[in-house]
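Q: How would the C-alpha cells look for this protein?
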Amino acid sequence: MIRAMIIDDERLARQEIRNLLQNFSDIEIVAESGIVEEALDLIEKENPDLLLLDIQMPGKTGFELLEELDGRAPEVIFVTAYDEYALKAFEVNALDYLMKPVEEDRLRESITKIKKRIAERNENAPPENDGKLDINDQVFLKDGDKCWFVELERVRLFESEGNYVRVYFMDQRPLILKSLNALMERLSDKYFFRASRKHIINLRWVEKVETWFNGGLLVILKDGTKVEVSRRQSVKLKEMMAL
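A: Here is the predicted structure in C-alpha cell form.
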C-alpha cells in the first residue's frame, strides 16, 4: 500500500485528486492540506511515501516546502496549472509532473512509475537504522534556483565551506546551508565517515586507502578525488575496514 498525501491550497483541486485516487486500490490517502506549514507537520507525523504537490501556494511554493523537509524526501508528483514550472520540476528529478485538470490516464502512468520506484527502493533497503538516513534514502537539495532529489548512494563527498557544505554527486556540486556536525547526526555511520573536520566521505565510494603523513591516511574515491583522513580518524577508519 502506498501512503499518499495531497498538498494544494485549492479545496476543489484536492477533492478532484482524491476522487481520482479512489480508483487505485493500492493508494491510501493519509492526509491532505492547503497550508505549507501545516503540511510540513503532517509529513513528519504521517511519513507518506508520495506527495501530490501543488507548486504555487500562498506564502511558500512547493519547492520551498521540500527544502524545509528535515531528512528523507518522499516521492513527489507535482500537480499544477502553471506549465512554466515544468522544466524546474524535472530539474529536481520529481517523478512526474501533471497539469490541471488532471487526467486519469496520466495519473495512472505516474502511479505505475511510483510503484516501480518504491518497490526497487524497498528491495534494496538496508535494515532500520534508528531513524538515520541510509544509503537508499532520497534527500532534497537546493542551491539558488536549482533543486535536486538525490539518493544518498550517489553522494560521494560532503565538504565544509564556512557555514555551508558542498555536496558532490554526479557532476553537481551544490552548496547547502548546513554544518558537517549537523549532517553526521542525520547520516548513517555505517555508510558515511567523518574523515576530518572538513570532509565526510561515502564509504561505498572508496577505491583505495594509502598511508599518509604523520600517521594519517589518504582515501582515494572512485572518481579520483583524494581526501586526507586525520590521524585521529585514521584509527577509526582502520578499525571499521579491518576484517
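The longest helix spans residues 104-124.

The radius of gyration is 20 Å.

Upvote if useful.
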